[in-house]
Amino acid sequence: MRTFIVILSVLGVGLQAVAEEHYEFYNGIRQMGMGGVVISTVNDETALLSNPAALGKLRDFFVTVADPELELGSENQDLMGTDQQKSFQIQEALNATREPGNVGKRVHAKAQVFPSFVVPNFGLGILGKYEMDAEVTEADTSVFDVRYNNDFALVTGFNFRIWDGRIKLGVNMRAINRVTIDTTLSSASEGLLVKDMANEGVGIASDIGLILAAPWDMLPTLAAVVRDVGNTTYTLRDGFYTDADETRRPDKTEQSIDVGIGLFPILGNKTRMAWSAEYRGVTTAGDEEDPMKRIHTGIEVNYRDALFLRAGMNQRYWTAGFEIAVKNYQLQAATYGEEIGTADENREDRRYVLKFAYRF
């Protein structure tokens, strides 16, 4: 733990300022209830996306038929009322956020599904994700900031168990169709459509994960994931949703490394616990001034694999969540705070997530 804290301190020195959210390819509801930790704790089908080495932790096969997940910002109700579909439409978001009483309020919306099939050490799945953040800024009411992301990805992964599973080495491959908008517009804009503004392209990406678990009480674990090995570009071919040509491609995703530690004490015959801490983007830490945007810690208590209680710290904000699992059904809920400000001017965006899943 001392070594981990020293590493975090060193990585926080001499960085550039960026007042923007730290975006990830995939964040699931369980990890966000636990403060964002995932690479040493994931033990289900989402290992395909979060850490392919964790495919080696699976004890059975899972077929996830449906798992819709919806995430909304705390200000969406004030901005959009009961019609939250508008949260995914750029013009509707602008219409709402430029109203005098709504300036400075932020639209945040994300919807994703991940039907999949996984067995110990192998899996495949399909990710569909829509996400948007938008606001008219208080500093300049003539400005409309918008970030839109639409990913459709085919994912497969496998894991090698070494030394009776104490070492797990996994890799995934993703074919991604990405549609992005990340721009500043006039708040007087009209007729905004994704197809007219977006960058789009297809790319191939890969992550490599490693888990080292010591055969001692509480299973002390070290984990690391190299994401987007060799950088991911989206120039393989034109996309499928818009008419964007080769001059309108999404920005490349730089290779990065996430590191984490975990402990897994057994509290009783029917109760287990997981604790973890992580630092995201070790090799890209120079992209921003605020090291807290990359720090996560969380805890989960599991009673009979039926009731799960979660809590943690995502960046500098509290998180909480729960899960009820009955036979083939799961119901999960979580809330977390995301840092969208800077080290000098912190700003929390509180979010609420709900997920229902059917799998066997």
Task: Describe, in plain words, how this protein is organized in 3D.
The chain starts with a helix and ends with a strand. The chain has a 16-stranded antiparallel sheet that branches. The chain has helices at residues 2-11, 29-33, 47-50, 76-80, 90-97, 194-197; strands spanning 62-66, 69-73, 107-113, 116-119, 122-136, 143-162, 167-186, 199-213, 221-227, 256-263, 271-279, 295-303, 307-314, 317-326, 329-339, 348-359. It is built from six helices and 16 strands.
Indicate the CATH topology: Porin
User: How much helix is in the residues?
Assistant: 10-25%
Number of β-strand runs: 16
**N-to-C CA distance:** 38 Å
Number of domains: 1
Overall CATH architecture? Beta Barrel
Largest sheet: 16 strands, antiparallel
List the helices and strands and how they pair.
Blueprint (H helix, E strand, L loop, with lengths): L1 H10 L17 H5 L13 H4 L11 E5 L2 E5 L2 H5 L9 H8 L9 E7 L2 E4 L2 E15 L6 E20 L4 E20 L7 H4 L1 E15 L7 E7 L28 E8 L7 E9 L15 E9 L3 E8 L2 E10 L2 E11 L8 E12 L1
Antiparallel strand pairs: 1-4, 1-16, 2-3, 2-16, 3-5, 4-5, 5-6, 6-7, 7-8, 8-9, 9-10, 10-11, 11-12, 12-13, 13-14, 14-15, 15-16
Tags for this entry?
single chain; 360 residues; mainly beta; Porin; 16-stranded antiparallel β-sheet; 16 strands; 46% strand; disordered N terminus
Quick overview of this protein structure:
By secondary structure, the protein is mostly beta strands. The chain has helices at residues 2-11, 29-33, 47-50, 76-80, 90-97, 194-197, and strands spanning 62-66, 69-73, 107-113, 116-119, 122-136, 143-162, 167-186, 199-213, 221-227, 256-263, 271-279, 295-303, 307-314, 317-326, 329-339, 348-359.
